[in-house]
Amino acid sequence: MAGKYSTIHYHSYLKLDKITGAQELRSVEVGQPAHEEMLFIITHQAYELWFKQIIHELRSVLKMFADDDVDERNIGTAVGRLQRTEQIIDLLVNQIGIMETMTPLDFLDFRAYLFPASGFQSFQFRMIEALLGLPEVKRMTYNNHHYAAFFPEDQKGVLEGIYKDGTLFDAIQDWLERTPFIKHGNFDFLKEYDTAVRDMIKKEQAAIDVSDYLTDQEKTMRKKMLGDTNTYFQAVLDKDAHDKLVADGELRLSYDATVAALFIQLYRDQPILHLPFMLLINLIDIDAKLTTWRHRHAQMVLRMLGKKVGTGGSSGHQYLADTAKKHHIFTDLHNISTLLIPRSSLPALPDDLVKDLSFYYSNINPA
Amino acid sequence: MAGKYSTIHYHSYLKLDKITGAQELRSVEVGQPAHEEMLFIITHQAYELWFKQIIHELRSVLKMFADDDVDERNIGTAVGRLQRTEQIIDLLVNQIGIMETMTPLDFLDFRAYLFPASGFQSFQFRMIEALLGLPEVKRMTYNNHHYAAFFPEDQKGVLEGIYKDGTLFDAIQDWLERTPFIKHGNFDFLKEYDTAVRDMIKKEQAAIDVSDYLTDQEKTMRKKMLGDTNTYFQAVLDKDAHDKLVADGELRLSYDATVAALFIQLYRDQPILHLPFMLLINLIDIDAKLTTWRHRHAQMVLRMLGKKVGTGGSSGHQYLADTAKKHHIFTDLHNISTLLIPRSSLPALPDDLVKDLSFYYSNINPA
Amino acid sequence: MAGKYSTIHYHSYLKLDKITGAQELRSVEVGQPAHEEMLFIITHQAYELWFKQIIHELRSVLKMFADDDVDERNIGTAVGRLQRTEQIIDLLVNQIGIMETMTPLDFLDFRAYLFPASGFQSFQFRMIEALLGLPEVKRMTYNNHHYAAFFPEDQKGVLEGIYKDGTLFDAIQDWLERTPFIKHGNFDFLKEYDTAVRDMIKKEQAAIDVSDYLTDQEKTMRKKMLGDTNTYFQAVLDKDAHDKLVADGELRLSYDATVAALFIQLYRDQPILHLPFMLLINLIDIDAKLTTWRHRHAQMVLRMLGKKVGTGGSSGHQYLADTAKKHHIFTDLHNISTLLIPRSSLPALPDDLVKDLSFYYSNINPA
Amino acid sequence: MAGKYSTIHYHSYLKLDKITGAQELRSVEVGQPAHEEMLFIITHQAYELWFKQIIHELRSVLKMFADDDVDERNIGTAVGRLQRTEQIIDLLVNQIGIMETMTPLDFLDFRAYLFPASGFQSFQFRMIEALLGLPEVKRMTYNNHHYAAFFPEDQKGVLEGIYKDGTLFDAIQDWLERTPFIKHGNFDFLKEYDTAVRDMIKKEQAAIDVSDYLTDQEKTMRKKMLGDTNTYFQAVLDKDAHDKLVADGELRLSYDATVAALFIQLYRDQPILHLPFMLLINLIDIDAKLTTWRHRHAQMVLRMLGKKVGTGGSSGHQYLADTAKKHHIFTDLHNISTLLIPRSSLPALPDDLVKDLSFYYSNINPA
After folding, report:
1. What digits encode the pLDDT tens for the residues B181-214?
2. C33-364 has which CATH code?
3. I want to staple A166 with a disulfide (CB 3.0 to 4.6 A). Which of A98, A170, C180, D293 is the partner?
4. Do the Cβ atoms of C109 and A342 come within 8 Å?
């Protein structure tokens, strides 16, 4: 029926009967039309459209990384789709600004009719959190209920399926753990890094000690800023320390994945590492942008309700503000920054490793 | 059935079955799934959602100004709704950036299946243009067809109805024409303005002539920049000249409305004029932002297709670029700027007029 | 020398020798050129340019409201300047996104040379906080030092002068307290509001109790959402309760100013109240946008440093995150939302008050 | 004196004495203080700061591509710096919105004092255009003067030097022309592409001809949309046709560079081509964003002046609108879209070429 060469009209292609026919104002239904309810509905519907798009992107990226052997030709595509996801989240943040053109007094004109609907009931948003890999144990409860309690069985099943099949966090962690260059012939990245860190700290400390420019107090501050192998660098230099932090819930990313992420960040200019580097940045960015969205969302709720209780029965502002603080997923990638050292102190890579990290053509046809 | 105190769930309130169930990819249907078609559909659906919101706002503002006697308590609300419309158009411009994350090569994966659908077929967008008051004679044809030829009878009827009932341009023009303060007792604004313009020009020209700082060439340029009663100011100082320009299609806004818009801009600090001033700025802004949207839209089409012909059969880029140049509505409000003169040259308003322009309370209880 | 008719060139007018000659890279100075230090310097310089503009706007608005008798013709101008301030803060938030294109590894190339400079030392930003009215007692300390300890005597003097002369918070509070319409002839707003709140609650509670749609648990939640005179509304219905909260540091805005702000929000459609309403929204917005800026700034620092100590010696992220939580100024205006009641429950205003709130002209020339 | 370990303060590091001491209002100087002149100055100064940053980025990228042998490890860095440049241009577009908060009447308060300064005199902006490679013959004249006539000798020298040393357009063209994979063993990309295009067109035309869904008129349109070897594809399939278009000024990019850009776009998923693909997109984006900036700038001038002549003596709006249409640099990269064909019609690459396009490691250690 619908052959490749059949014709199609804008209106039917986009199913506009459904899309623009889906705004039924409760305030109209109860005979108290409130102009602003249209904005309330349309903003939320636009959110859900974009949530669907984000899910579409995340699922496709997840699929690329689900195998034990990731096709390197896909990483550019994955980076593109995650960047798009970031742009969409930026748009969602902007949409909050549009919602805020509704004043609190306008909201009161129809708020009573919405009970007990709540943004907390957005199934697609839960899917996004699950696909990214928000750990179930970290999820805030809502009115003391587990988040899944709000969804029907089939939707609960979908959420459980995501965790069972593996989230993006899981897939990225596995992929990082398989990074082959960390030990390469005689080159042991961690050993070299350990030495470099210790040398750098020793040299800098000595320079600070003899500086004529600094007061004693400044020297102390300067060293504190420099850090120490017993502080910043400890967890990565000592697998046991790392594992203990994981066991305590302080860290989540495995030791091997952490080391690989550090290696990628430090040597990102090597051709084979550049797109992986961009990918890690994308994940950090998505996390940060979602946090901004939660923060702005919390602000909006505060503006609308002040200290009132939300239609869902919760203190919506507090719930959202808490998720902005706790619903992070890629914090450990974020914190790789702690472990970076200046390029001037970086261990040099041996020639054969540099070769492995570059393109085939360039090695066969040197300049 | 749906009483004020019945309960409602997020999912059913927002009719998410419809909203997130309205994405049927043609590429999937013909057995050649193209990942990016989802983005194409969702972006357009989001556009149509927001178009519906804009129509909701414009219709409500139009209603406020449809009567011969506009309730002054509504102008603040109208300003708020037009500002919201502006923010929505800004969002629509941002959405183009998201669409542009789809590369031209990705677009080719499903473009062939869309024939002959075209954004030109968006009925809601035509409604927005009509509600604002885009003159039918100015509309670009598309593939040599009148724009309405693309719509079924009932939609054509809606568009005709808008023009028949009066557009926002019409309503604002009528409202401006009724501005009561242009002649007020012995004060004749136009006469005072005429004198002020002539005095200002004479004084400035004299000062330029005797200036030691300027070369002769600079003096000439300086005077050109100053303008003349035979150039810039002619149309407003001479009703016949204005009416001729209207007859020739150079101007559209009536003489009386133009004079009132000028008066409002010049004396906007008077309390009764401030919200009307904001309203005029809103209309100018909406026009400008729609133009930016058309410009960006044309850019996007160029990026996707290069010089290829669009699915609707037109050279989409050229059509859009032309509408960006010609589909303006409030140009004459925009051009009031030409007629402004510095505050230092402004005719003073007589006390009784100042009183009429201020609040009742302040007159009864002077400071 | 510089007469009105002297000529001027773009370059000298903008003092571009100074502006584009003010980038001296420390990394170049010490012989280790770091490409990204330029971005670091220019972003901060652009911040400081815009801070100067914000100070220019805030000072001008403060001046308008400093007198006991605010000229009503100025309120539109004040609203415009505060809206501009908002747009500038939005821009500053966007600038963070540009700074974040510098990766943490790039930052390490010159970070060591910046010690102990810190954004905390921005005098202009302290001025902005002071002009808005950030209470000195609420300011976070920094490395256990009072913020003013970081500035030379003359700058400390400027900051103290702002507090002494009165901040925007002070001026707005005074202006609100002078609102003349709260008691008007026989109309006592607070009494009417009290009755309206009690009636509304009683009626709603009764309707909930008899509803067939709700379970008992839902009825309880619904009532919690409705609020009570002993909870939400208590502080405004009982001056002593309010004053106690002020004494305890829970509230800051005086009782009379709070009541006036509530009155303005509830009756904003009355002509004389509309611009004051917009002004209150502007102040709330500025507060919220500054908070977003602090939040994003904290995010950026976290991204750059991970858990490292900042160049200023503090854990920059934590400091900024704390100010995002605590450095609010207009929270009490924000929380007026708690006190709003639906329009359908609003006490009607007596005719003579409506007259006082409208324009002189409209009363003399009724439709 | 300024050793690595000397201390530095925020204020002196950023040379804030210069930066925030560079606002001298002409209106103040002539004794007619205009509040809004501060905004005018600061916005322009912020522009110039960011122009300096853009020049810093473009110069660094140009340097990477100036050699005959581009270090492949630099391409990721180049992509990052061009992306940053894009973000900065986005910011510059936003700044126009801030400038537009100044109303035309406010501008008149100080406009007369600015004569004959003009944004046209921005030397740094001319540098940006030159660095990107705006052809000198395409530059609009201004008041009938060549653009360089407005700059002193030393600045003219800098601009000439840029063209002499080679612009980014030149460097990218050279780099594209050196792409080694276009002919690879027995594989001749152009021959394969030619065949693929002809096959695709023949097959599609046949399918359209036999389609039951389409009317005759639709079949004609559908074929027009498909294109033909005599239209879209001619210039790339026929070097002479291309060279003639270059000679006529219709095209600018050389034949070999065009073919290479097409190859990169079509096979961007191959590892060695992905970053080059991103780089081409960046250049297209920068061009498009600069055009948006010019468009918005023209809009702003129209809003401020209406039909008045600008301080520089030109009809500023028209000049800017013309540059928005004509000052493009990478149009030919943009138009590569015309030449793309669906992935399903793409010629397969031979195994040994695929190998050359991939990483060394992956070839040595196949999955």
Report:
1. 999 999 999 999 999 999 988 988 888 888 887 8
2. 1.20.58.480
3. A170
4. yes
DSSP-based three-state secondary structure for A184: strand
In chain B, positions 120-159, which contact chain A (CB-CB < 8 Å)? 120-124
Q: Where are the domains of chain B?
A: 15-364
A347 Rama sector, left if φ>0, alpha if ψ -120 to 50, beta otherwise: beta
Is B233 part of the contact surface with chain C (CB cutoff 8 Å)?
no
Q: Which residues of C touch A204 (CB under 8 A)?
A: 112
The CATH number of domain B15-364, selected from 1.20.58.480, 1.10.3210.10, 3.30.420.100, 3.40.50.1000: 1.20.58.480
- C142: which strand partners? C145
pLDDT tens track for A258-271:
999 999 999 999 99
> Candidates 1.20.1250.20, 1.10.10.10, 3.40.50.300, 1.20.58.480; correct CATH number of A17-364?
1.20.58.480
Angle at C302 between CA C301 and CA C308, to 5 degrees: 95
Rounded CA-CA distance A121/A132 in Å is 18
Residue A326 Cα, gap to closest chain C Cα (Å): 14
- Among D5, D12, D14, pick the best mutation site for testing chain C contact (most C Cβ within 10 A): D14
User: Mind listing the pLDDT tens digit for each residue in A162-195?
Assistant: 999 999 999 999 999 999 999 999 999 999 999 9
Give the tens place of pLDDT for each residue, C258-306: 999 999 999 999 999 999 999 999 999 999 999 999 999 999 988 888 8
Q: Which helix (H) or strand (E) holds C283?
A: helix C271-305
| ipTM > 0.90, yes or no | yes
Residues B25, B30, B35: CA angle, nearest 5 degrees:
40
Q: What is the pTM of this model?
A: 0.95
* Residue D203 near chain B (CB below 8 Å): no
d(CA C212, CA D178): 79
What is the mean pLDDT of the segment spanning A329-336?
93
Return the CATH architecture of domain D32-364. Up-down Bundle (1.20)
Does B2 have pLDDT greater than 60? no
pLDDT tens, B322-366? Answer: 888 888 999 999 999 989 999 999 999 999 999 999 999 888 776
Q: Which residue in chain B is spatially nearest to A95 when comparing CA positions? A: B91
